[in-house]
Amino acid sequence: MLETLRKIVQEVNAAPDLESVLDVIVRRVQRAIRTDVCSIYLIDRQRERYVLMATQGLNRKSVGQVSLSMDEGVVGMVGQRAEPINLEDASVHSAFTYLKGTGEKKFHAFLGVPIIHHRTLLGVLVVQQKLIRKFDESEEAFMVTMSAQLAGVIAHAEATGSILQISDHTKTEADRKFEGVSGCIGVAIGPAVVMTPLADLDGVPDRKIEDIKAEVAKFKSALAQVRRDIKRVGRSLAKRLRSEERELFDVYIRMLDDNALAGEIIARIKEGSWAQGALRQVIGEHVQQFSMMEDPYLRERATDIRDLGRRMLTCMQESGPSLAEIEFPENTILVADELTPAMLGEVPTEKLIGLLSVHGSGNSHAAILARSMGIPTVMGVVDLPYTRIEGLNVILDGYSGRVFVNPSDDLSQCYQDIIREENEVNAGLEGLKELPAETTDGYRMPLWVNTGLITDVARSLDRGAEGIGLYRTEIPFMIRDFFPSEQDQMETYRKQLEAFAPRPVTMRTLDIGGDKPLPYFPIEEDNPFLGWRGIRVTLDHPEIFLVQIRAMLRAAEGLDNLRIMLPMVTSVHEVDESKKLIAQAVDELREEGHIINQPLIGVMVEVPAAVYQVRRFARRVDFISVGSNDLTQYLLAVDRNNPRVANLYVPYHPAVLKALQFIVHEAHKENVSVSICGEMAADPGGAILLMAMGYDVLSMNATNLPKVKFALRGISFDRARELLNQIIVMDDVDKIHMMLRNTLKELGLGQLTRPAIPD
């Protein structure tokens, strides 16, 4: 059964649209269970009815014609109960409703299984048989497994089918909506530009071309190059391989000489597809065909074909224009399967207005950087077939996490009004730059910024930042192909320190691992967020840690505004060991003639183990900084990069609020200052609560700093404490959010809440 399931899923994944997906399912399931009928009923949301969408065994003319209300028939009962129903004779059941024209009267045995995707009922998968008998346990188990496997595929195929129509610019599919999670608030409207990772066949977008002759020549050139490369490799290894191993290279050459494969690709190009898209389509079809074959030898040829496709794609990408040569349109919305920090720097900032990622969540590292740049972003739009939206107009709603493809004029105008209102609010905040974040009763709250890119510096100063609470030093590491030298790091760090001097700059030591890998220092782990990351990596590699510390100290020479912060600390041993290495670097540089002052050293509290050791840490360091993003993730056991559980990542969870309050109280018992540099500090409501808890510094992305300052200047400290006392005893996250929103509106700060978004 497992092999049967694998083949069905493979065939479904290769189907071009929803109709084909459903047809594959009913045919395959009927054959696998050896039953008379297999049917799929999907819910029509507008009509609130189950519609027969595919069948093998009933009258096919009834497909799309017959339907049931949501509480009608045994199918409706399956949906209401959200569990399988197995009847030996459905026709005598009290809930049975005969669907005229289907021919189902002669069938008795019935097994229906709900199709559920992310708690949403999509429909019901049904098998029927003429015999009066119950389907056995193995058949029922297979159906449940099939339903669970295919629920996501059906949801995705439904979206894919819609996009296929959108790509043809049919008017009936305007305003097609896809759901993700917010990465950075704001609205953007513009053409989609899909960024493809190198040699990623599946990520190649569809794109139309006019110069067919040039595109065919590009493909033939790549084909010839790959053929030469394989022959060369085969000759160089000939003496080291046995004859049967050398035959592999002959197989590759025969595939490349096969006029059918090349001919199919050229035919697609002549139909108007660019070479890379034609390659993806043809290779995908051949891989799917070979993968379904029974013979193990032939099935393995799928891997060979995919490898050849990647090689040809690499050749075409290398011969094509570089990113620097690409003409990005005005108001570009950058789309990727998974956004990376490096991608953000590859589009001219004056043309980039929005970011859209199929994978990742609102708290991934790319989203955090997007917020620091103030670019509206939506993450985790897992059902979006991104390869098919190149050049289409897109509305990106960073407030609700929604994406609209091919929007209507009415919807576009509605969102244009929101953009205009946003601009008016932001213009009203510009006068706050020189004013302090001081409450109405005189309480002063220092506001710092989180940075990582050089461009963050000017933006931060322009918004009145009083210091840097978090400089992400891994960014210069992530945009290179090798570890930066001490001199390179020193020059980068100096720019941050000089720009903010004499204001403090808090530099976090290299924090890689988790969602921040280095391409030249890969860390392959089953659970990277619980693995080798942060201080664990750098203490295991003192040669990396010492070079970075030396670069920081040299960069701060004569400025003396450096603060060094240690990430992912879980024990006092890690703090003591880090301090020894920092002291070693200070001594070395002084011996070399540099005038180095001892910097302030702090630790990040971002794992539960650190929460209960705050006082111990406070006795060893100069300051404490809370990384609320990771702390929330670990407290709630929610991967903040996983869109499937993104709704469970809630910074205002009662457990998170209690932990944040506990940390600041414990640190203050040792007279050590406490800052917070997570995204909660960038939310006006969150900033009010953190101020009331007693945090000494709030650090946030520069984009949100004026809004936070405006909120703090519009409330008294006593009112903030009163609000905290009300919220800290609440146990419902939704009610906490509602109270924060209502309080902001009562204070006349309603413009800081989410605008009215059209449904």
From TrEMBL:
<keyword id="KW-0808">Transferase</keyword>
<keyword id="KW-0614">Plasmid</keyword>
<dbReference type="InterPro" id="IPR015813">
    <property type="entry name" value="Pyrv/PenolPyrv_kinase-like_dom"/>
</dbReference>
<feature type="domain" description="GAF">
    <location>
        <begin position="17"/>
        <end position="164"/>
    </location>
</feature>
<dbReference type="InterPro" id="IPR000121">
    <property type="entry name" value="PEP_util_C"/>
</dbReference>
<dbReference type="InterPro" id="IPR023151">
    <property type="entry name" value="PEP_util_CS"/>
</dbReference>
<dbReference type="InterPro" id="IPR029016">
    <property type="entry name" value="GAF-like_dom_sf"/>
</dbReference>
<keyword id="KW-0479">Metal-binding</keyword>
<keyword id="KW-0813">Transport</keyword>
<dbReference type="InterPro" id="IPR040442">
    <property type="entry name" value="Pyrv_kinase-like_dom_sf"/>
</dbReference>
<dbReference type="InterPro" id="IPR008731">
    <property type="entry name" value="PTS_EIN"/>
</dbReference>
<comment type="similarity">
    <text>Belongs to the PEP-utilizing enzyme family.</text>
</comment>
<dbReference type="InterPro" id="IPR008279">
    <property type="entry name" value="PEP-util_enz_mobile_dom"/>
</dbReference>
<protein>
    <recommendedName>
        <fullName>phosphoenolpyruvate--protein phosphotransferase</fullName>
        <ecNumber>2.7.3.9</ecNumber>
    </recommendedName>
</protein>
<dbReference type="Pfam" id="PF00391">
    <property type="entry name" value="PEP-utilizers"/>
</dbReference>
<dbReference type="Pfam" id="PF01590">
    <property type="entry name" value="GAF"/>
</dbReference>
<keyword id="KW-0460">Magnesium</keyword>
<keyword id="KW-0598">Phosphotransferase system</keyword>
<dbReference type="InterPro" id="IPR003018">
    <property type="entry name" value="GAF"/>
</dbReference>
<dbReference type="Pfam" id="PF02896">
    <property type="entry name" value="PEP-utilizers_C"/>
</dbReference>
<keyword id="KW-0418">Kinase</keyword>
<dbReference type="InterPro" id="IPR050499">
    <property type="entry name" value="PEP-utilizing_PTS_enzyme"/>
</dbReference>
<keyword id="KW-0762">Sugar transport</keyword>
<dbReference type="InterPro" id="IPR036637">
    <property type="entry name" value="Phosphohistidine_dom_sf"/>
</dbReference>
<keyword id="KW-0963">Cytoplasm</keyword>
<dbReference type="InterPro" id="IPR036618">
    <property type="entry name" value="PtsI_HPr-bd_sf"/>
</dbReference>
<dbReference type="InterPro" id="IPR006318">
    <property type="entry name" value="PTS_EI-like"/>
</dbReference>
<dbReference type="GO" id="GO:0008965">
    <property type="term" value="F:phosphoenolpyruvate-protein phosphotransferase activity"/>
</dbReference>
<dbReference type="Pfam" id="PF05524">
    <property type="entry name" value="PEP-utilisers_N"/>
</dbReference>
